[in-house]
Amino acid sequence: MLFCYMKEGFLPYTHPVQFSSDQELVEKSAELNHLIQGRRSIREFSTKAIPQEVIDNLIQIAASAPSGAHKQPWTFCVVSSDDFKTKIREAAEKEEYVNYNGRMGEEWLKDLKKFGTNWHKEFLTTAPYLVVVFKKSYDMEADGGKTKNYYVNESVGIACGFLLSAIHQLGLVSLTHTPSPMNFLAQLLERPVNEKAFLLIPIGYAANDAAVPNIERKPLREVMNKY
């Protein structure tokens, strides 16, 4: 009789994806690589609606990311209200105007020139959904106490990566928008003091006339070293 000892609080793990051979694994990895290589940041969105269930599933995917001590130090605020989107755009454009007219240095503006960006952010009101990701440096207890979270930036960054990848695999598009400073987002959405805005991600379909800069990613030899 086979006896397997399992530590208390643990469950057996079986991966939901199984391949019959190394060759199939190589082929599937190449297919996934090809798909993901097509992901681009989009600034021209269609107003076409997306079912709320899709957004719910996307947020659950993002929230499945690993986190320090499994503290899950994130909150995803989903904005679809035209009123809220307008308020966010107005506040973001106010900050971005200052950025493009003095706050950013010449080198930064030069680096951004190839993207054709400016302080106008139409996508904030065009995209059907905005997801504002907040990070929590600590959690608030019911009695007012605080509990520490660990590797917060890393954990929330990984969750956003999960989200961006899932968005693309569903045939949707997104943009990583970081109006700086972002304090206005916590104020507009009335978030608690332990939450700080991390990223603003518009989600939707690409507009029919959407275009992206003609740029290339670094080749594998420049981003990977073998030892």
Key features of this structure:
single chain, alpha+beta, four-stranded antiparallel sheet, two-stranded antiparallel sheet, 39% helix
Structure, described:
It is built from eight helices and six strands; from the N terminus they run ααβαααβββαβαβα. The protein has helices spanning 22-37, 52-62, 82-103, 106-112, 123-126, 152-169, 183-188, 220-223, and strands spanning 74-79, 129-136, 138-140, 146-148, 173-174, 195-204. Strands 1-2-6-5 form a four-stranded antiparallel sheet. It has a two-stranded antiparallel ribbon with strand order 3-4. A hairpin with a 5-residue loop joins strand 3 (138-140) and strand 4 (146-148). The longest helix has 22 residues, at 82-103. The radius of gyration is 21 Å and the shape is globular. The model has no long low-confidence stretch (mean pLDDT 95).
Write the layout of secondary structure elements.
Blueprint: H1 22-37, H2 52-62, E1 74-79, H3 82-103, H4 106-112, H5 123-126, E2 129-136, E3 138-140, E4 146-148, H6 152-169, E5 173-174, H7 183-188, E6 195-204, H8 220-223
Antiparallel strand pairs: 1-2, 2-6, 3-4, 5-6
Q: SSE order, as H and E? A: HHEHHHEEEHEHEH
Radius of gyration: 21 Å
How many β-strand stretches? 6
Distance between the termini: 43 Å
Order of strands across the main sheet: 1-2-6-5
Strand fraction: 5-15%
Mean pLDDT: 95
Helix content: 25-40%
**Low-pLDDT regions:** none
Form type: globular
Structural class: alpha+beta
The major sheet is characterized as: 4 strands, antiparallel
Count every helix, treating DSSP H or I runs of 4 or more residues as helices.
8
Oligomer: single chain
